[in-house]
Amino acid sequence: MWRERTRLMFGNEAVERLAAAHVLVVGVGGVGAYAAEMLARAGVGELTLVDGDMVSLSNINRQLIAMHSTVGRRKVDLLAERLTDINPGIRLHPLCEYIHDDITARLLDTAHYDFVADAIDTLSPKVYLLHSAYMRRIPTVSSMGSGGKLDPTQVRIADIAATEGCRLARAVRKRLHRLGVVSGITAVYSAEPVASESIIETDGERNKRSNTGTVSYMPAVFGCCMASHIIRQLTSNTRNNDNGKRDNEML
């Protein structure tokens, strides 16, 4: 009954496809948790959630599962509880580990995924995941930088080769080019220039050289755009679905 509005939108075949789909979501902080929740509410039947982080006070301004009552708890566990409350029948595989090369290879080689949602915020593991999924021909959508951005109307969905105005996207493209990948990976990005005053340098912990200020709504916009792309691709060629024809446009 709870999926009836989705059924009215897409039809029975699409609802069945979503229920049979398995999506890997890597990074369940500001962007990834919103993507995962939108997938669960759309009826995606199986999700693997990967993140080694705990909720901290600094997460509260933008992360779905971050509240004063959840500080210190594992993000994947909190999100799994929330998604199970939304869809008690969902099949969840929470993994509380920071992503690195060995884990990426194991994840991609030990399960079948219909889609990968990349919400990693550090460059090296992000590129390794994208390249690994690309080489295994697993459809992937990757979030670029939502930090330092304010205008949701400048968020776009496009091939990584067509991204512009995003420092993270530029760095990802450069690394992928070295690995022989020029296009074929979908990105959610913003063409809005980053406010330079919102960036501070860090000590390089977990490969992060800087932290960027983030407003509450921008990670949610990115996550919803990721879920939109996945849902439309999984239900392509069914009723009321445009097969992603609106991608590459401003949202």
Automatic annotation (TrEMBL):
Q: Which GO terms describe its biological process?
A: cyclic threonylcarbamoyladenosine biosynthetic process
Q: Where is the THIF-type NAD/FAD binding fold domain?
A: 9-240
**Name by which UniProt lists this protein:** tRNA threonylcarbamoyladenosine dehydratase
The record's annotation in InterPro entries points to: ThiF/MoeB/HesA, ThiF_NAD_FAD-bd, Ubiquitin-activating_enz
Specify one Pfam family.
Answer: ThiF
GO molecular function per UniProt: tRNA threonylcarbamoyladenosine dehydratase; ubiquitin-like modifier activating enzyme activity
